[in-house]
Amino acid sequence: MSAIVDGVTLKDKLLADFELQKTAFFPDNPVLSGFRNKAAEAFKHLGFPTKKWEEYKYLSFEAFVKSELNHSLTRNSTGNVVQNELMVDDANNLFLIDGFYDEKLNQKKEWPQGVIVSSLADAIASKNVHALMHLGMHTKTDTDSFIALNTALFQDGLFVYVPENVHIEKTFQIIQSSTENEPKLIQPRILIVAENGSSVNFIHLQVSSNNNETTLINGFTEIVVGEKASVSWYNVQEVGKKMGIVQTTEAYLQNNAKFETVTVTLAGKLVRNNLTIVLKGTHCETHLDGFYFPKSGETFDNHTLVDHSMPHCESNELYKGAVAGDGTAVFNGKVFVRQDAQKTNAYQSNKNILLSEDATVNTKPQLEIYADDVKCSHGSSTGFIDSEQLFYLRSRGISESIAKALLLDAYAAEVINKIKHDSLRTKLSEVISGMIQQIK
Amino acid sequence: MLSIRNLFARVEEKEILKGFSLEVKPGEVHAIMGPNGSGKSTLASVLAGREDYEVTAGEIIFDGKDLLELAPEDRAREGIFLAFQYPVEIPGVSITNFLKTAINEQRAYRGLPPMEPKEFLQLMKDKKAVVEMDTNLTNRSVNEGFSGGEKKRNEIFQMAMLQPKLAVLDETDSGLDIDALRVVANGVTRLKSKENATIVITHYQRLLDYIVPDFVHVLFDGKIVKSGGKELALELEEKGYDWIKKEVALS
Fold first, then answer.
1. Structural domains in chain B?
2. What crossing angle do the helices spanning B95-109 and B117-130 adopt, rounded to 10°?
3. Are the Cβ atoms of A409 and B87 closer than 8 angstroms?
4. CA-CA distance, A28 to A32, in Å (whole number)?
5. What is the sign of the dihedral through the CA atoms of A107, A112, A114 and A117?
6. How far is A402 from chain B (nearest CA, A)?
7. What is the pLDDT of residues B188-218, one digit of tens each?
């Protein structure tokens, strides 16, 4: 194969992969193969995004689509324990290595009656009714390249099912890591179903253990939150310098459901998060917060969508970023308040601090309101560190660098403090402090 | 201790201090009074090292060091403290963390090890008593949501914690009711010693009922036009600044 392959070739290669395996991957499940076919068609039509696409205008996937990425089709479990500074030790660990549920690392545990924690491929193979009822059933597979690609070609991932009124106290820590050997495309698929009245909490760590290869992770997570159920989802991303992540996370909330999510992006060449929260029932409550810290050579892009379609729901969104060196941050936050969504409370705020003259921020809050009895607000700000605050601290004998670090720690803490898992919050604060101290 | 000689300073191309001179010795309290726009706050900002202010001529020598050569933090470490006219709110930084950092940075500059946590807590407790500061206030973020009086009290509390050689109080009386004024002034008076000095910058005489100055200077159009004892403040209060303006015009 030639050293430089143009973008079409990766697309072709992936479509060829699809043709090869479509008869092998659960041929006896017509529903699944039906929507995989549809997704493959969509991807064939869409291809990878380019900067000409409005939704992807600040991102270049060239480094990935022009490299010789191989689709990760095989399990590469080394059985090696993944270690990362951000891993907490008071959670139930679930490892996904190269997108595959790792049986060796995931010790079998006794879960409460009816709880399922398994490989997604296994759940499909065993025709788990809950998995098949929800997998891909709430999303649109034909409008976004990455959803289409993941749907057409995912091999495995994670399935967690929490039955009615079951409360799982101990947090699940999903550790997504990759093995090093070659440039590849990894496509984990995660399905979480929290039935009515249940509660469950997750940490979703996207890390790389010494991965210096060009790797693109195209993850898709679907979270179904039943009536009066409560789910928290903390997404933490810290991957290698040549790695990219496109992480699509969609949550679907039924009546009186609660969903809290915090997305923290700390390292990676290119990270794009597509977070969609659909409030399908009344009296839902959701909190979506984020902190991103791109440094030189890094581009972090958060696209969020909160879709209020029913009345009496509340959404609160706070995304904050600090951008160092020649790093780039993108924030695009859509809030839709549809005609029937009366008595909606929807708040959105995006704040950015530029730590250098070369840093770039593109921010676009979008509030679209079609109901007339709602309370909504949004705001966005981008600036340098407040010079008055800095002078105040320095006037007390604190050096400029430590004063800046104090201010940035406090700035990040407003988001990090939303995380209710104590040890994760502590670890993140420490890691972010350390990163701040590295900045000149 | 402090020697300001023939100082000229400007902000945004506008000359504000025009030949300001002042000598301050340990143990002294100097009051600098003057009408609005005379250059009082500029003097405070120049002493603390605010970057928007440009010194075009003159010198400031503090304990034998050229103050104008020093960064704001080094001035503080040398023992200068500015009580701000408008203290800044710093959300997310607790007063405790802020002061611990400041004290230890100052100690490091003087070659001292960080303060023991126990000692720090005791110091906090003692100094809170001096300014009658609510215990809960120190757990909060610096000045965030503080009333005007609380902010000024917090300035004096920081001064008490940092124990500067020279404190510059910039309009500390502005926005204070009479009770808060008394507390703040008592705090300043209790912190006075033979080794340290205070410059009180104020528009009104009333603060000087509580903080009795050794010298009163009248600042007008960027320089001191009249100096005297504490009775000068009373005279100003009685006659107003127009009296000074006329005197200056005559001379």
1. 2-250 (3.40.50.300)
2. 110
3. no
4. 9
5. negative
6. 9
7. 888 889 999 999 998 888 888 888 999 999 9
